[in-house]
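Handout, section B. The chain below has 188 residues.
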Amino acid sequence: MKSIKHLATALFSNGGLFLFIVIFMFAGCATAKQEFDPNVTGPQMIVEPETIRLGVAKLMGTEIVFRGKGFEPGDSVFVQLLGVEKKGERVDIPIADGNVDQKGSFTAKVGRITKLTDLLRAKLGSNDKMESVLIITQPPIPEGVYTLKAVSMESDKTAECKLTIKGPSILDRMKDWIGGLMGKIEKK
């Protein structure tokens, strides 16, 4: 009981609350690592994390990785985000690609430019000091649960999984606001 009292005293005195908020803002929540379904014999794909947020700083700092298995060794795959609403119509957006290893597995990461242009629908520019700036000119991809499809380049093998896209949290908005103050994010 005394330790809880000491923790509360430390948090609310001498700037401890500020430190707690800063640590909370930048600390991530651990999630269990995704595993393939052992009952499926064909191609499979999983995405980590299963849920992403559309805060600019949050998304740009999040590593989105696809892992697949059950493909032909030596093949390559590309991953599409299916059914994205763009200018009034639904389109499929290629967001990652990877090479299949000798065990039939692949790993593919979503690149920085893809996050910027296809998910955030933003642009990369520079400020007066010639530093890179993320320029937000339109709303990001709509929130929702999206299907991702890995397509083989040399065979007819495919695999699908789901990705949940959520709007920015309050902390994400605060980070983006700070990014704006620092001249790293510009909204037009």
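Note. Residues 1-8, 16-30 have pLDDT under 50 and may be disordered. Compare this with the example in section A.
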